[in-house]
Amino acid sequence: MRTTLRTRKAVGVGRGAVSLVAVGALALSGCGGGGGAPDEQSGSDGAAKPTVELPELDGQKVSVAAVWGGAERKVFLRVLDEFERRTGAEVSFVPAQDPIIGFLESKVAGGEPPDVAMLPQVGAIEQAVANKWAKPVGTEAQKELEKNYSDGWRELGAVGGEQYGVYFKAANKSLVWYNAAVMKNAGGQEPKTWDEFLQTARMIYDSGIAPVSVGGAEAWTLTDWFENVYLSQAGPEKYDQLAKHEIKWTDPSVKKALTTLGELFGKKDLIAGGPQGALGTEFPESVKQTFVGGDQPKAGMVFEGDMVSLAIAETDAKVGTDAKVFPFPAVGGGESPAVVGGDAAVALKDSKGAQALLTYLASPDAAAIWAKAGGFVSPNKNLDVAAYPNDVQRDIAKALIAAGDDIRFDMSDQAPQAFGGTPGKGEWKALQDFLKNPKDVAGTQRVLEDAAAKAYKAQKD
Fold first, then answer.
1. Which terminal residue of the chain, N or C, has fewer Cβ atoms less than 10 Å from its own Cβ?
2. Matching CATH topology for 2-29+51-172+340-409 and 175-337?
3. Per the record, which residues fall in region Disordered (predicted)?
């Protein structure tokens, strides 16, 4: 495979997200890190025995744009390698930058759009359709979607009743991972509520370790913090209203959620490096500083999704033994939330290669390759869970599939990208400023509302 060898510092990890409000707290901590090898009929790279027939594309060029970098890009390239092997196509990976819609706009204007783009937001799919860039899913890909995906996941990739997106990658983003040795030394236990979480953090601090690692340099992690607190505390109805901007960001429910989040962000000794250090920490590093150093790391816990396991794999820690996980704690008497990220493949060219790639990505064949590597959950209900590398990830995958159609997309990813998905602007900038000064709840609310009002108005216009 021919790939462009530029690197991207900010690793985009599953910006699109859905909340599984019907799924109870996952019993993850008791899961071992051991095996469960892929199906005996799997190929050398974890690809299951082919379940879908792909066309011959000898010599045809297919380009794929995505914001993935680091370990995620490496694994996705293996997925594309298998597509090359089976079709004879020549596939190139095009590194994209956030916001990907802006990146694609420049490519389209230059007459060089990629064949397929991996879009991390519902709003991005809708915008690609509105701009007349996106091409509808073809017959063969549609068959795979109907066979392998629930109605809810198909609807997330549809605009105006027509299918455009194939959701290939999901990620449960309501998980708190912890260094098992640090937790044991502190005498702590897995918390089930926000108050218990803060108590556990204090116990870890008293043992001599900074309790929580925050990757604040990549502000999507901060939107995830807010959304988990808000969904649990305010409930699904309010969540839906705020996501659609039917209530303002100056609403008392937002004040309450920011105040709650400030109970963590406002305690400098609870955050590794303090707020300023967190703002200089990128997501992969936030994971590594929790698990490098044995029982004396820089932090004891890190919040984020199952993609954390990819960063853990670059350390000596083992998932299920050294690195364990519990569901995001319930806040204010609400349910424990579950937010899941996702990326959809959308064709930007009317080409045989683009449609063949969508068909492949909608099959269990492609999903099995990344599942074996870890840090990935597939919404494909026909993927054998034995493909996942350990019991922790198998349980996460089972919970995702069990949720069926009861899904909600991540709040920031339902918003116009100018508000919910652009570095240095909108919600991302407001929450980074809030991390710096979590006492300014009212000011943060005003900034959020001003930015949201402008973005939603521009979207309507």
1. C
2. yes
3. 32-51
* CA-to-CA separations, 82 to 125, 299, 353, 367, 384, in angstroms, rounded: 26, 38, 14, 11, 18
Give 1's strand partners.
none
Over residues 253-259, the mean pLDDT reads 98
pLDDT tens profile 67-105: 998 888 999 999 999 999 999 999 999 999 888 999 999
DSSP result, 227-295: HHHHHHHH-HHHHHHHHTTSS-TTSHHHHHHHHHHHHHHT-GGGBTTHHHHHHT--HHHHHHHHHTTTT
Q: Is residue 409 pLDDT above 80, yes or no?
A: no
Q: Which architecture characterizes domain 2-29+51-172+340-409 according to CATH?
A: 3-Layer(aba) Sandwich (3.40)
Q: How confident is the model at residue 307 (pLDDT cuts 50, 70, 90)?
A: confident
Decide: helix, strand or coil at residue 138.
coil
Q: Is 53 exposed, middle or buried (0-12, 13-18, 19+ CB in 10 A)?
A: exposed
Q: Which residue has the higher pLDDT, 263 or 17?
A: 263
Q: Which CATH class is domain 175-337?
A: alpha beta
